Amino acid sequence: MFRSNIPRRRGQPLPNDVRKRNFFGLGEIISVITNPAETVRSLTESRRLLEEARQEIVENRERAQLRPAHTFSRLPGFFPRPTEVKAVERALEGEPAFTVLFGASSVGKTALLREVLSRPDYHVLHFDLRIAGFADLSSLYTSLSHQMEMYFEAISKSMKGYEEFEKEAWGFKHDRLNVERRITEGTSQVKVSDIAHLMELFQSALLKYWEFQPAGSDQPETSQAPSHKRDVDSSSEMTHVENGVPPQATQAPARRSWASRIFRRSRKVNPENDKGKAPERIVEKPKQNPKKHQSEPQPPPKRIPVIFFDEAHKLPALIRSTEAMKCLLDSMLVLTKQDRLCHVIHSTSDPFYQTWLRQLNIMQHCKIITIGDCSKAETRVFFQERILPRVPESLRPTLDFEELFDAFGGKLVHWQDYITDYVNANGKLEIQRSSHFSQAHALLNLHIIHSAQSPTLNGDSEKSANDNGPGSSQTTPVGSGFKIYSPLTHPHSPQVAQATDEAPGYMSDFSAMELLRVMSRLTQDNVHSLPYFVLCREMGVQTIDGMVKGRILDLRWTDPPTPEASLPNASSRDLGGHHHAAANSSGTAVEVADEGEEWMPAPEDPESPVDREAPVSEDFVGPRLVPITPIMRYAMREVVQEYQEIQSISEYASLADPEEY
Average pLDDT over the chain, rounded to whole? Predict the structure, then answer.
């Protein structure tokens, strides 16, 4: 029973008595016999561990069979906008850059980018901050790591010859496991250095990706000019230099960088007929040796990586660490401007996102593209091809395109919503009773009412000092204001902390009179926009920025690629009465008299709460202010007309000392 079959080690002497028994393992046998409960517990634990291992193997097998979730696809029913599509394509065809896409809400920024980036030429690392998958450093690190791992897994599985890039995906996985293990052990949390290390891994993997040549690619047949052949093959997919050309003609200048060969357009090769040199003959590849190309398939073209943050102005509100945001944005600059490895696109509906990037020393390295509403021609095509087929024949004659365009402009979403309500109401729906007009009209009146009530007359307050422009001596009465949600562009700034609902001393950034003055100028004939900096000098930066944050005005840093709707027709909406001429402090308000008519200044009405300025010239440089939507301009005309008709203090607001204005 106790004979040992364990072989002796080499060199071990034989025991004196070879029949002597070995008691090795007797202690374990006795412990099992004397403590059966521990034995049963050990067997139960082993069975549980085996079940967990089996379940993990099954889950891993199922996870391997699942297709990676990539929800970035084309939007069904996208209305083509050739000018905007071409602008985005030009930005992506050039050298890698950091692009910021500005535009008001519901202008089609996401749909436009989906239409372009869903093509097989690009692979998008998409982060939709409307449903952000992160809200702190830990979740930010995890989200970035998963997206980068999925990117290189897709490369290894979808592109023939790139199987070894699965190892790059493993690098992100193991780095994430190390961080998770460190968090589980409680030694430390995710730090900014982890984000920086992750971006370094991504930079290294992208560099290897662009320099990698798959095994199936064409190799140089001779060693005389290998760099030249690689340049010609990479610069054009259809041509190459014929092999019978002498070596002197095939030698090329310095080899271009891999980034230039990838991102720049194909460069035509012009043959030179110099004396003493045989000319190069450029022939098409498929015509030279079609059998060779049939037997040797070309590797798939490399897909350009694009990092896309939708609603990017929510980044500082989600990640409260300024160091982490600076690290992330600087890494994006390195990937674009320095190493030229990928494109970065930030889409935002907050015009003050540009100010935040400027404070972090990022904006001067970025490109700006502004997306506006559709032009009148595009809107007419949309009306005839997409809107009218949805309307019954009996209701179509009452639809006037010019009247609807005067109200909704090129905002296609508002057209669809109005037509839906129009059909549901059996054609008995006026524009003034539509949903979007009611919301715009109510928002303007809410701002006026709340800004006019409970005026604060503290002349030495900081608000009064900011609101009064240079050269102004009176104090503008300011009420409590209508609180409206605004994206947090700088969560640690004192303005944001003061504007929260918990702050008891919240005041409106502008007065009712200042809002009425701006509305009056925007509703004048032949006025489409107002200069931002001129109004800031006249009324104060906080006043004008408050109107933008209040969703009344939209600030545009650049002009959109497509000129928007034509200016409202003067005869379509007569505001009643004559216009008063007055020069503003900036010197830009001028009124041109008709030919042969002597211009006489009309006396100002001291009781009128509306400032009737002369039309502002559109020929100015710099950012401009427009109503946030065309229906907002339409509602402004209604509100201004109400104030002009009564020619006194509005019944909706109690304004103090209107004679001052």
Answer: 74
pLDDT value at 67 more than 80: no
Q: Give domain status of residue 291, yes or no.
A: no
Strands 239-241 and 282-284: antiparallel
From residue 262, give the alpha-carbon distance in Å to each of 211, 259, 308, 504.
10, 5, 20, 57
SS3 292: helix
Token pair belonging to 194: 């982890």
The whole-angstrom separation of Cα 610 and Cα 608 is: 5
Reduced to 3 DSSP states, what percent helix, strand and coil does the chain have, rounded to the nearest 5? 50, 10, 45
Q: Are 429 and 396 in contact (CB under 8 A)?
A: no
At 226-256, the pLDDT tens digits run: 344 344 344 434 434 344 444 444 444 444 5
- Please give the pLDDT value at position 506: 53
Between 572 and 637, whose confidence is greater? 637
> Positive or negative CA dihedral for 27, 32, 37, 40?
positive
**Cβ-proximal residues to 282 (8 Å cutoff; 6+ apart), any chain:** 239, 240, 241, 242, 269, 271
Q: pLDDT of 503-521, one tens digit each?
A: 444 567 888 889 999 999 9
Residue 493 structure tokens = 């700034």
* Residue labelled with tokens 């009781």: 607
**583 & 654 share domain:** yes
Task: For the beta carbon of residue 414, count every other beta carbon within 10 angstroms.
Answer: 22
- Does residue 349 share a domain with residue 205? yes
Count of Cβ atoms closer than 10 Å to residue 397 Cβ: 8
Here the tokens at position 486 are: 């605004």
Q: Do 429 and 399 fall into the same domain?
A: yes
Q: How many domains does the chain have?
A: 4
How far apart are alpha carbons 104 and 372 in whole angstroms? 7
> Is 417 found in the same domain as 325?
no
Kindly report, residue by residue over 250-274, the tens digit of the pLDDT.
444 444 555 555 555 444 444 444 4
* Interatomic CA distance for residues 288 and 228, integer angstroms: 19
| DSSP reduced 3-state for 517 | helix
| Beta bridge mates, 101 | 347, 369
Between CA 586 and CA 622 the distance in angstroms is 15
| Cβ(370)–Cβ(555) below 8 Å | no
Determine the Cα–Cα distance for residues 360 and 322; give it in Å rounded to an integer: 9
Say what the pLDDT of residue 308 is. 93
Q: Containing H/E element for 103?
A: strand 98-103
Q: Shortest CA distance to 463 belongs to which of 538, 552, 534, 539?
A: 539
CA dihedral 544, 545, 548, 549 (to 10 degrees): -140
- The residue range of the domain holding 49 is 28-61
Pairing of strands 624-627, 530-531: antiparallel
- Separation of alpha carbons 494 and 380, rounded Å: 47
Give the residue among 253, 166, 248, 244 at the shortest CA–CA distance from 209: 166
Query: Which stretch of DSSP H or E encloses residue 240?
Result: strand 239-241
Does any domain span residue 505?
Answer: yes
User: What is the C-alpha to C-alpha distance for residues 110 and 258, in angstroms, rounded to an integer?
Assistant: 31
What distance in Å separates the CA atoms of residue 502 and residue 496, rounded to the nearest whole number?
A: 11
Q: Is 617 helix (H, G, I), strand (E, B) or coil?
A: coil
Burial of residue 11 (number of CB atoms within 10 Å: 0-12, 13-18, 19+)? exposed
For the record, the structure tokens of 337 come out as 């401007």
Spatial contact of 332 and 360, defined as CB atoms under 8 Å apart: no
